[in-house]
Structures are given as structure tokens and as C-alpha cells.
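Weekly modeling sync, notes
Attendees: S.R. (lead), two postdocs, one rotation student

Agenda item 3: backlog of single-chain predictions. S.R. asked that every request posted to the team notebook include the full sequence so nobody has to chase files. The rotation student volunteered to paste the first one in as an example of the format we agreed on. Action items at the bottom.

Example entry:
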Amino acid sequence: MKIVNSIKTIKVRDKNSRVIRRKGRTYVINKINPRYKARQG
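Predicted structure, as returned to the notebook:
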């Protein structure tokens, strides 16, 4: 999982990416292609 400053750049890379907020952190989760997992905060 990458820790990134900008969540938007990772979300745009793949259409299956979803942005989810958990415990004050923002995650990008992609079930089809897990290498796009990232978090911010």
C-alpha cells in the first residue's frame, strides 16, 4: 500500500478504484487490481 499526498491521482488511474474513509484516513481500494491500493492521512 502506498501512502500518497494526492488521492485523486491514484483514483484516476483505474476505473475500478473506490475512495473510502475509515478512522479519519482516506483509502483507495481496488479489488480487481490491488496494486492501486493507497492511503492518505
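Discussion: group reviewed the output briefly. The CA atoms of residues 24 and 41 lie 7 Å apart.
Action items: rotation student to repeat for the remaining queue; S.R. to check formatting next week.
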